[in-house]
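Researcher: Quick sanity check before group meeting.
Model: Go ahead. Protein one:
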Amino acid sequence: MAVAGSGWGLAQLAEALGSSEQALRLIVSILMGYPFALFQRYFLFQKDTYLIHLYNVFTGLSIAYFNFGMQFFHSLLCVLIQFLILRLMGRTITAVFTTFFFQMIYLMAGYYFTATDHYDIKWTMPHCVLTLKLIGLAINYYDGGKDPEFLTPEQRQFAVRGVPTLLEVSGFSYFYGAFMVGPQFSMTDYQKLARGEMTDVPGQRPNSFVPALKRLSLGLLFLVIYTLSSQYISDEYLTSDDYMEKPFWFRCAYMLIWGKIILYKYVTCWLVTEGVCILVGLGYNGKDQNGNPLWNACANMKVWLYETTPLFTGTIASFNINTNTWVARYIFKRLKFLGNKLLSQALALFFLAIWHGLHSGYLVCFQMELLIVIIERQIIKLIQDSPILSTLTSIAVLRPIFYVLQQANHWLFLSYSLVPFCLFTWDKWMKVYKSIYFFGHVSLFILLLVLPYIRRLLVPRKEKLKKAE
């Protein structure tokens, strides 16, 4: 629910642009991060930290009210309760589990009571970002009470040693550059930002204007591409009678293009917000081996890799990076005690699915992700181990052909996986899958069954290789 105030002209402007008012409010909100960041750079840099916390709380709450009206109280309540959990339960495993279950149950309840059969921009959208942030805070606070010798280097880096104040937790939660759509960042980095330490020149404002402008420009480019393309490519067409009546090859080709375009709305938001984080200094990530500053601490996209990789694992590594890193750090690696990497990966993906929402489409999407990753790794290993296949793929003149075929295959199966993610409900994504005869599931399960036999045929046994030597 957007705040009452359509009289501002946003509704009319959104209609003229062919967008929803909610989407326009979101774009305005993330773009407002730039003037907010400029003010913080020039008027609050290395000022008292409480002023920076107050500023972040005020700007973040203003953004929340602008988008959702009085429903901003959901985030306010969860931040307050999280602070009480940290203070009353301390650095205990009980605090970690209480945080995890409370924050996730609150988010799930929000999904349940606000659910529709299509994607809406409502208070649960920034709340899912906040949920990860607060769970991560509780775990880092717990790590801060341990002997550093018993922590991994990564855990030592993010462990919270001091006791955060309510104002500090609130500023961390409502930071304007990441409140609506992320990225994720740690309390330790936020504390460095508040102290004026997130800069490439100690004691001076960060030289981050140009890097921030580059990410903003790139984000706006993707926004233009998405806006123009969405006039011809849409979710609704996938379930239309006209789509169902098209030839099979057309349905697959349209799905491939649709999957490529539909993700640009996420790419746009993440690039724009990354620019805000870079501008204020939060994106500072030390220096490279040549002494040049790195501004990728808040990067949610590796654009070049995303656009050029022919691998599904490459897309995962380049898309929504901070969320994937968060899940790896706080879910996957913390499940090491299970002693089964595949089980830990499956549970991490299950967490991601329910974190996104309660619709069946999320579970199907992440189940497909796990299946595709498993098969892709088997195929890569097969090519590496097979003398015939490795020789064939090393022929220079054939590489462009293999690359084009691999890219088409990669985006077709990625788009196939995105259908339930974007259409949410059983009746919609099932209708689309039936129209293409579940080719993705059928192909993957066949590969899962036959790859071991193909490997036996194409990969020589070690005993034969030893004799040959």
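Researcher: Fine. The other one?
Model: Protein two, sequence then structure:
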Amino acid sequence: MNKSDKPLSTLWGCELSEANKEKTFSADETNLQHQLAIRTMCIGHTAKDEFNIIELVTETGEKAAEAIPVATLHPKFMPTVNLTGIELPPPVTFRLKFGSGPVHICAEHVAIEEDSSEDDLEEEEEDEDVELEEECEESPEKPVKKTAAKNGGPVKRKKPEKALDSTVSDDENNPPKKGKGRGRKAQA
């Protein structure tokens, strides 16, 4: 749903009984997108001690209408059923397949009104895209930094070499170091 779409929601309900076994929800307006969101079905307080089977008939495009049982209600065992999550486009027909009712159906009719400025928004988005492309073309390319290492890893720096004094040797100035890695000197 776009920001420009405005949902309109109203309650819709009907009663199925022995006298009225079928009820159809349909929408007339063509400039709105309609859906029927089924909420609950419950059996009336005057119902007989019998099962009541409610079926749903939907027509989808080229296919013929299909009847699907969606609830089986009984006054003692299952007086109410929650059907939240079933959302169907019109026309939707409810039929009392078995039983004498009364069965009450509660649903929510949702209509989405498309704003006429939707085309204007699309044109604005296209203009913004063109402006972004022009900005990208105008910006200069950044120079690529080259690394000295062949594998692209960090560059290793060489340690400065120590100046060797030819008159003084290391052995004479420095006493022998103790610790690992240094062996004993042979005494002369």
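Researcher: One line on it for the slide.
Model: The longest strand covers residues 32-43.
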